[in-house]
């Protein structure tokens, strides 16, 4: 692979006299403008689709929270979706005095120490909030942005960043700029206390998140003085209970200034026109000097700091060293060391010496740099017969190997090649490049530095890495032991008593009316002709399809078998066992190393009706990759000892799954949907696992080479590929096994409950609908947009915005991907146990009579039309979209019929669809939560309650 070119920043002035920076030899053609008010604007072209990926990264996060108002940056992020004096208000002159009163009451509430007096103040806040809500138009920002056909509308907050996200049709750029300029020009804290309840819910959900539990403890110990460890993004419970609207306004006025954020736009854009529009809308926002950043330095760590946390999940251990901030040479070396231990080719020291040899259930290493300092972590999940201390010693043994330089000389160059490949993958998509640009802005680095990073990695020698390891890895780390038990550090933020507000669903501000009235040139949808985009040939009687890669020097090869676990439930087991087996010539470890040297990854995916074996990486090495794969599959060497060790790993992993809340909820929901006889519960039994011979597994792999499959190649040289793939193909002599048909029973009003020690409660209702019908796809899309999913949907507005009954709530209609099989409707609520009954009733009320809101229906309909018109099917999706369509009995682009259907769709049509297809459904319900926190009578009202054991729902 060629060395990275030298990159150099140059300054150019465009035709409209706007100066910009660009980097010589940058194939991405990124332009970086700086407006007079300090606003940075990053522009780059990507012509995949007539859409633009947008990010607005603000250089502030939880590290800038006032010490007595932690969680403020995150809460402000929530409030940025509430609109302004112009956007989201039905009558600002009447609303503003009420919001001012509420702000003053919150200051009194914060200062008051008497609990009873605080309650009285909060009651007054609640009363005035009811009055203020009469003038608030809920979710108007979301309605405005969705009216453009935007997707991916979201935001996140972290230590030193708050990032706002949208993907928009390119013809709606000016409207997007109008909306975002309005949003960033002022802050209006409307519907404050109902959103506060949502933040409480998010805080409480985090209490059930095992990763957060460990992370908080780790960061607190790693950074005893710095906000990295002392101020979590969600904040402290006591601060959430005592918020300050005044402090939030001060924070916004201080940090949300144009010289402290950037606009990132990557997609189908015209540079000159775009920068003019950005300047027109954002250029007038005033520059404001930022406060001096207080430097907080940590004392060097000189000892091992030990912490212990407990939760119901399986034990694990994490150890971490305080590392360097991003952009430093030390950070790059630390990142190399992390990859020497654990990398995408699974050929690092931890990969081979722990995971490959199955000495623990799982172990990983990573380096996470921050703006100040960083976190170099090792994580291990021990086996059942292994103590946390023994697992820790396994990790330290790998560190010692790095210190001794006991890793192959080729590994660092291979890692750097992997970095290059990953960069190629990232930069070829609009989102990948835009993400790199916003990260670059937050880090305070130049784009030249980012592009030259590969060159900097290539300069790092093995000697430097070894010296770094010996200087860095000492007895100066934090170790957190996550033990199984009761979490004694739970902090629940209780509902302070919020009266649901009435949502103004049909009102529109003058600002929104203007946005909707402004006409933009319509984008015309482009429907794909698969016969023109996919080249088809035959090689030794195997069908071979080809789509040309127009973007870079990477290639992908797929061997697609028309059978899966429904045909042979041990097929997935065989492909998993293969990962631990070598051949007569190469050990399993050497095979992984050879793939990694080539810059090629392999993947085996076993679905119910399809097995896919794939290779991805450098096209120049693909022939060697195919040969390596063929030899591995054909000559895999059985090893009963390795197999039995893997059986132990499977059985222990099953026990881990039965302790994990999310996996339990997934299994419980599957049981509610399919009953006891399902794919998920039809597992290979422990008895069968222990009697299988390793030879049976390798024979299944060898047989695959002699079975029915087709080949798909995504790359540049189709003729060369057809010639080199011949060595892989053997005569077809093994028949495809019969497919097992699993029942799809009616959902009949049962409630399935599993007890789990958690703060929140999760409930999912599933209803079996009629068989999939392609004629309904347009209606389904509009239904989900209008009613069930997204920030501007009716369910979100009512359950979260109006009543503050759940942090997460949705209704989703899912069309079956296979002909002659049923669709399913799912409703989901994640909330506090004491609010579940009320939340369920609110959801049932919404589902009882389909809401009739013509304006919102038109928003949803037009949003879906714009999404279809501006989307394009590209790259490997061209082939796989058609492959999936064949399961529905068609081979053409069905979006054309969907588009026509939606154009004609009326609210009456959608209401009729709801009445015929959704309203009559009977649902089964899955509930997970702590038994003593749940209202048993409320559960019984939902249907006949069955308390399920873990063995019932997992099948083992």
Describe this structure in words.
This protein is of the alpha+beta class and 956 residues long. Helix content is 43%, strand content 19%. The protein has an 8-stranded mixed β-sheet, with helices on both faces. A hairpin with a 2-residue loop joins strand 14 and strand 15. Helix 2 runs antiparallel to helix 3. The relative contact order is 0.11.
What secondary-structure arrangement, pairings included, does this model have?
Layout: E1 8-13, E2 19-24, E3 31-34, E4 40-45, E5 51-58, H1 72-79, H2 92-111, H3 115-133, H4 140-146, E6 151-157, E7 162-169, H5 173-185, H6 192-207, H7 210-222, H8 227-230, H9 237-241, H10 245-255, E8 262-267, H11 271-282, E9 305-311, E10 316-323, H12 329-341, H13 349-355, E11 362-369, E12 374-381, H14 388-404, H15 411-427, H16 430-443, H17 447-451, H18 453-459, H19 462-472, E13 478-484, H20 510-517, H21 530-533, E14 535-539, E15 542-548, E16 554-561, H22 571-578, H23 588-598, E17 600-606, E18 611-618, H24 622-635, H25 640-657, H26 661-674, H27 686-691, H28 694-704, E19 710-715, H29 718-724, E20 750-755, E21 760-771, H30 777-788, H31 794-802, E22 808-814, E23 822-832, H32 836-848, H33 854-870, H34 877-886, H35 895-904, H36 907-918, E24 923-929, H37 936-942, E25 944-947, H38 950-954
Parallel strand pairs: 4-8, 9-13, 15-19, 20-24, 20-25
Antiparallel strand pairs: 1-2, 2-3, 3-4, 5-7, 5-8, 6-7, 10-12, 10-13, 11-12, 14-15, 16-18, 16-19, 17-18, 21-23, 21-24, 22-23
